Amino acid sequence: MINITSFLKSIVTVFMSLLMTFLGNLGIATDHFDTYSAVQYGDSLVQVMDIYVPNDAAGKSENGAILFLHDGMFNSGSRSDMKNDCRTFTNSGYITAAIDYSFISQKGVSLFTMLDEITLAIQKLSDLSAEKGLNIKHLALAGKGAGGYLAMMYAYTNADYSAIDIEFVAAKAAPADFTPSIWQANYSDASIANLISSLSTVTVKTEDVTNNAANVAGAVAMISPTSAVRTGKKIPTVFAYAGKDSMVPIGNKAALEDALAAANVPNKSVYFDTSDHSMAIDMVHAAEYNNLITDYCNQYFK
């Protein structure tokens, strides 16, 4: 049964988003924030972030921030891909940021490299908060695809290293469980083995995946949010999956639901039943998802 209030709220959110985009295209100012572009958060040239700050942020006793992580299946993408999300939530009164991070195609890069980069980015955001008097006291991590995966992994496993308290995590179309059986209808065993090896730094061969060798389970547990949430931090979670996603199989949805329930983690979700991985054309469900994030900001940024 459709929740009429939530549906109408989603319609209004869609309309306002389209209106702001239209006015922006006409050159009519609709944004009420300052932007700090290409801020270096580490020594590497790739370690760069953009930060968006509402005009009235410095006048508040405390602020919440959302750090966005882009998609790209760990080998592509840019912080600029998250600009619209940053804009949406900054205009709603939250400080936002988006980062570039290293790719597993680069020598020596693994999941743990990317998690370390998130720690550095959060520290930089905390430093800017102190410098500009922004009083950032609360943080959410959010992302899509690989970015949503990194957001979950960091929240569940590395939250104690964060310079700002992580209150919740939001992930769209994100890998949640690298158990090969979830992926084998969409990817070859060789591709699955390569991804597990690259993320975990454990050598997993094609035949290991094919034969369900013992070393696969150990590597999968190291890199899967479904394992991390059972043993790590119980961070409230918003998530969404798409019914026609060929990149992140729908089996990830059930696996994450089961893991969150087993760990007794508060969560809410949206199902984009007719969407592919991009989730680009289902504006009503997109608005519903953004409304859930706003609801979590209202609930946990206190």
Question: What are its keywords?
Answer:
2 domains, 44% helix, alpha/beta, 11 helices, 18% strand, Rossmann fold, 302 residues, eight-stranded mixed β-sheet
Describe this structure in words.
This protein has 302 residues and is of the alpha/beta class. The protein has two domains: 4-177 and 226-300, 3-Layer(aba) Sandwich (Rossmann fold); 179-223, no CATH class. It contains eleven helices and eight strands. The chain has helices at residues 4-25, 83-90, 111-132, 146-157, 180-183, 189-200, 206-210, 214-223, 225-231, 251-262, 283-300, and strands spanning 33-40, 48-54, 63-69, 95-99, 136-144, 166-172, 237-242, 267-272. An eight-stranded mixed sheet has the order 1-2-4-3-5-6-7-8, with helices on both faces. Strand 3 (63-69), helix 2 and strand 4 form a beta-alpha-beta unit. Helix 4 runs parallel beside helix 9 (225-231), helix 6 (189-200) crosses helix 8 and helix 9 (225-231) runs parallel beside helix 10. The longest helix is centred in the N-terminal third of the chain and has 22 residues, at 4-25.
Main beta-sheet annotation = 8 strands, mixed
Q: Tell me the series of helices and strands, N- to C-terminal.
A: HEEEHEHEHEHHHHHEHEH
The H-level CATH homologous superfamily of the largest domain, spelled out, is Alpha/Beta hydrolase fold, catalytic domain
What is the 3D shape? globular
Overall pLDDT: 93
Q: What is the radius of gyration?
A: 19 Å
CATH architecture of the largest domain: 3-Layer(aba) Sandwich
Uncertain ranges: none
Estimated structural class: alpha/beta
Tell me the strand order in the biggest sheet: 1-2-4-3-5-6-7-8
CATH topology of the largest domain: Rossmann fold
End-to-end gap: 32 Å
How many helices does DSSP assign? Answer: 11
Number of strands: 8
Helix fraction bin:
40-55%
CATH class of the largest domain: Alpha Beta
Total number of domains: 2
